[in-house]
Amino acid sequence: MIEVHNYNPDWTSHYLSLKAKIWPVISDIADRIEHVGSTSVVGLSAKPVIDIDIVIKSKDQLPAITTSLKTIGYEHLGDLGIKGREMFKHSKPEFRHNLYVCIDNCLALRNHINLRNHLRSNSKDKDTYSHLKKYLAEKFPNDINSYVEGKTQFILSVLKEYSVDENELMEIEKANKKPGPSKLNKIEQDFWNLYLSTLPNPPKGLTAEASIAGNNEIADQLLELYLSGKKYAGSGLVVDYKISGDHLPQVGNHWIILDSQKKPRCIVKTVRVEIYQFDKVPKEVAVAEGEGDLSLDYWRKAHIEFFTPFLKGWGVKELNKEDVVTEFYEVVYK
Length: 334
Prior knowledge:
By secondary structure, the protein is of the alpha+beta class. It has 2 domains: 10-176, 2-Layer Sandwich (Beta Polymerase, domain 2), CATH 3.30.460; 186-333, Sulfate adenylyltransferase. It has 11 helices and 10 strands. Helix 4 packs antiparallel against helix 5 (144-159), helix 5 (144-159) packs antiparallel against helix 6 and helix 5 (144-159) packs across helix 11. The protein starts with 9 loop residues before the first helix and ends with a strand.
């Protein structure tokens, strides 16, 4: 499970303890060692895992570093698809940590250092990033790919300020992109098949996606609104779909809604799609989404709170002028 904790001052001492064991065996080879990642930024919420970069001048030094690290229990796992960054794992770590050996000035190292230094000196972005990570951990508690991808646009928006060129930004985005839509698991597929069996002539190739509504904390609450018929719509920003490379919702899409225990509870079908400017969303949408007091004021307040952590990463400066896509649903199976 992905857990994001409030900042813990012990993380610095954990890093120093790990460094005290690592540095003596590599100091004659490595150029320096860096505490990177979210645990290196005072006040930033983070997964309680220390990220450490050992910096070497040349890849030619990697065999010697690998041999030295092996003497204190580290296994070399390779670059895991990230050029210039080699990962190492300890068999019995004193503290949870990720250890990397990076070639000086490689893209991965520059990203780590630039993001760390930026967040150390920009409290507003630090707070936004904390909020974003907590939200993503709640929404995707068991999906590290979606968690990582959800942070990507924010990270890219920061790195653009530090002379990272477009090709490098594309490389970072590609590395953080989650795999394509996953197939339904057996329980979800069985539930989908039961629905298909109720159709006189089910269209060939008809598919569905399965997920909870919202995040784990509110999934069951939203599910009950769908089941009761009080909620029959949901909205997102068009810019999010564009940046993620996803297609906008289409009439005829099917969604298997899971409860917080990941059990399929109902299937909804998209019957209508509308696009509105945020500040011109009609009351009909607030009523159809079925939350709070059904007023536009409540809808706007809730969606401003929901979207705000993502706006910097999306390059959005004025939410009121952004397009909102709203899907209207009907429950077709439960």
